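Wait, can you check?
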Amino acid sequence: MAAADTAGGQAIEKQLKICGYKSNVDVVALYLARQGLRSIPSLSQFRRLRYLWINNNKIQELTFLIKNYYLTELYLNNNELTDISGALKHLCSLQILFLHNNELKKLDKTVKELKGMISLQTLNLFHNPLEYDPDYRLYVIYFLPSVQLLDRKLVTQKERESALNLYNPKRAWVMQSVAFGKRADTSLGTTVGPGRCTQQARRPIMPSGQEFGNNTNRVPFEDPEDAVLVRAMTRSLMEFSSVDWNKVATSQERRLENKAEEPLEKLTVQFR
């Protein structure tokens, strides 16, 4: 292991000389790819490091990125990683992350590690054992909504809708109801597709003798989201009013005629 660390240290020193960096704070990019490295010493001294290539090595553990908060692009593909838990979640500025061609097996643990990366737009996870999960792509799309390019393919709006229906059918139903101003076709009593997080959707039950607006001190539902669902099941009352402005006297006409202002004739229409 000591030899591996020495090899990693030598590779870093070589790159610093090639790039002509004078001090650690000047280092914004490091290219350590294709050097047969099994481990790398801590890179915490490079606080402003933004671009890091460690692809095509033999890395098995990620213990060297503890304080590299400024990283925006990280290339870890073609290594021997089996687990990234606890190694990347603090890198909230990442926009591009390549993890393909590794040995990552746990889809849920891998995605959980990346959830805090709200700026992540490009992600590669293909050629890992986890990609054989039956709902792999939809799972990643739902739990990492910022990702726009997954495994070299653009994430489509249809895929986002399918992921929402699969992993959060209740929310999908509400969004459909609000968007179209009517009851959604999907029944609340059915389960939408198989999945690890899919649950039997529950029809909200309003307690007897309680209605909206009658109880201000407590919520008349066991689950507050039920109130949203019940509201979505009824169409809103719409009201339109119009006035014939040709019959309304101007201020100058009222002064000349010296008449009291007559009430306006207003036409109001209500419908659901």
